[in-house]
Amino acid sequence: MQDLTSQVAGKGDVARKAKFLLSLIAKYQESFNAVENCQKPVIAAIHGKCSGGGVDLICACDIRYCSADAFFEIEEVDVGMAADMGTLQRLPKIVGNDSLVREYAYSCAKIDPQEAKTIGLVGRVFPSKDAMMTAALSLAKVIASKSPVAIQGTKVALNFSRDHSVQDGLQFMTYWNMTMLQSEDVLKAAEATINKSEKPPKYSKL
After folding, report:
1. Smallest Cα–Cα separation from 164: which of 152, 172, 176?
2. Which tops the pLDDT comparison, 172 or 9?
3. What is the per-residue pLDDT across 49-64, written as a single tens digit (0 to 9) for each?
4. Neighbours of 87 (CB within 10 A)
5. Homologous superfamily of domain range 39-142
6. CATH entry 1.10.340.30 includes domain 146-195
7. Neighbouring C-beta atoms of residue 125, cutoff 10 Å
8. Which whole-number Å values give the CA distances from 174 to 4, 43, 134, 180, 186, in the listed order?
9. Across the strands, what pairs with 65?
């Protein structure tokens, strides 16, 4: 923050300071957007303090696990600014409670693990960091064993539907699946089901 302040101070003119900050903020935002736009699902495993940019980051992830020692804070107000990397845009949709998000954002209150689970910020709470990491890696292996066409299509559909109406989401998937249903993965999955195979099919990388 001090480095940023010195960089801005060195620009002199207000217009040039503003243009510099515009470019810088947009660049930082893209680094968080890259997580959400990653074709593969991203699992966040959180322990200890998660605040500021940490909350921005986990809000861009697909799945969030935390350990019992974790806590969360939207703390930007306490440093004299409004959060600008995605928390205020993504968290209301994750939690589904505008009033509660505003309470957290205005007060910088700590959110403990059980409250985080109750409001939907995290999906699961584990007694220790090790237990959490084991579960996260296990889930990652399960997801990795699935059809990449199906997994990536599901992520695209969920992200699109979050920001659009149900009807728009259905129409989007009509166009998506008119191509993706022709994938060899559909045939491989069907054959495995028919043959009652104990091992998942081996899918090509996408």
Report:
1. 172
2. 172
3. 999 999 999 999 999 9
4. 26
5. 2-enoyl-CoA Hydratase; Chain A, domain 1 (3.90.226.10)
6. no
7. 19
8. 46, 28, 37, 10, 16
9. 45, 124
Could you tell me which of 98, 101, 100, 89 has the C-alpha nearest to residue 162?
A: 89
Least confident of 4-13, 84-93, 101-110: 4-13
Q: How far is CA 145 from CA 53, 201, 203, in A?
A: 31, 8, 8
Give the residue extent of every domain in the chain: 1-37, 39-142, 146-195
Answer whether residue 152 shows pLDDT above 80. Answer: yes
Q: What is the pTM of this model?
A: 0.88
Distance CA 36, CA 205 (A): 20
DSSP the chain: -HHHHHHHHTT-SHHHHHHHHHHHHHHHHHHHHHHHH-SS--EEEE-SEEETHHHHHHHTSSEEEEETT-EEE--GGGGTS---SSHHHHHHHHH--HHHHHHHHHH---B-HHHHHHHTS-SEEESSHHHHHHHHHHHHHHHHTS-HHHHHHHHHHHHHHHTS-HHHHHHHHHHHHHHHTTSHHHHHHHHHHHTT-SSPP-PPP-
Q: Are 199 and 188 in contact (CB under 8 A)?
A: no
